[in-house]
Amino acid sequence: MGLINTFDNTTEEILKPSHHAEKIDGFPETVIVTFSEKMLHMLLKHNDTEQISNMRAGVDVPIYQTKYKGKAIAFYMTWMGGPITVALIEEIIVKGGKKILLFGSCGSLDNNITDGHIIVPTSAYRDEGTSYHYVPAADFIEVKTANRLLEIFHELNIPAIGGKTWTTDALYRETRRNMELRKEAGCITVEMECASVMALAQFRGVDIFQFLYTADNLDCTEWEPRILGNLPDDMKEKYTRIAMEVAIRL
């Protein structure tokens, strides 16, 4: 059968997200997803923040709500990788989330892109498994929300560029040959979730937005960690604030 034949829209799921989650009246339609515990804590500093629900992913995943410039926004922290990120968003959709914004770091495949630059994925190379269960097989999946997100960054006068990304499940198997092939296909970044979450978005009919900031660099003779794992606090605050500003405009 093979991975490329796993998409099935003829029969229902055996285990459904509604088995683990239920709709919550008044749940915010806009939801921010962070991958950083420190950025989560920065979001928690906002006034009128409270826990409104939780999810289970081996451990409790609290969901919080805050108000930013008069708009209610939910937020929580996820983990690296398409499977867990998609599973949690599935439950968020059941609870009432309709516009989901993810932001996190990525590796650069272009040595000329400076550290911390904001990238909006426009399509994602599907070097992972989750997306093949949500949409038919193809090399790339389009990010249908990319143009609107780029418009928002323009409105905010925040420099951002759009480009293709390489989504992989195998953090420690990003070989030089595969990196060069992805570059030839036009990818400028590598990360672990975009293709998966955009396939989910298409299948469930919700709007998922994602922006990345460049951390490490793979386009070099030896891997360069750059700011990966060493992001200054002022930059953490910057990306958190940007996420909030973007969220109220979705």
Tally of individual domains? 1
Number of helices: 6
- Please bin the fraction of helical residues: 25-40%
Oligomer: single chain
Number of strands: 10
CATH superfamily annotation: Nucleoside phosphorylase domain
Q: Which sequence of strands runs across the widest sheet? A: 5-9-8-6-10
Query: What structural class do you assign from the helix and strand content?
Result: alpha/beta
Report the top-level CATH class.
Answer: Alpha Beta
What is the makeup of the main sheet? 5 strands, mixed, barrel
Shape: globular
Cα-atom radius of gyration: 18 Å
End-to-end gap: 40 Å
Low-pLDDT segments: none
Mean pLDDT, all residues = 96
Order of helices and strands: EHEEEHEEEHEHEHEH
Query: Could you name the CATH topology?
Result: Rossmann fold
Q: Tell me the β content.
A: 25-35%
Write the layout of secondary structure elements.
Blueprint: E1 30-34, H1 37-44, E2 50-56, E3 60-68, E4 71-77, H2 82-95, E5 99-108, E6 118-127, E7 140-142, H3 146-155, E8 160-168, H4 176-184, E9 187-191, H5 194-204, E10 207-217, H6 233-247
Parallel strand pairs: 1-4, 1-5, 5-10, 6-8, 8-9
Antiparallel strand pairs: 2-3, 3-4, 5-9, 6-7, 6-10
Helix pairs in contact: 1-6, 2-5
General description of the model:
By secondary structure, the chain is an alpha/beta fold. It has a single domain (25-247), classed as Nucleoside phosphorylase domain (Rossmann fold). Helix content is 27%, strand content 30%. It has helices at 37-44, 82-95, 146-155, 176-184, 194-204, 233-247; strands at 30-34, 50-56, 60-68, 71-77, 99-108, 118-127, 140-142, 160-168, 187-191, 207-217. Strands 5-9-8-6-10 form a five-stranded mixed beta barrel, surrounded by four helices. Helix 1 crosses helix 6 and helix 2 runs parallel beside helix 5. The longest helix has 15 residues, at 233-247. The protein is globular, with a radius of gyration of 18 Å. The model has no long low-confidence stretch (mean pLDDT 96).
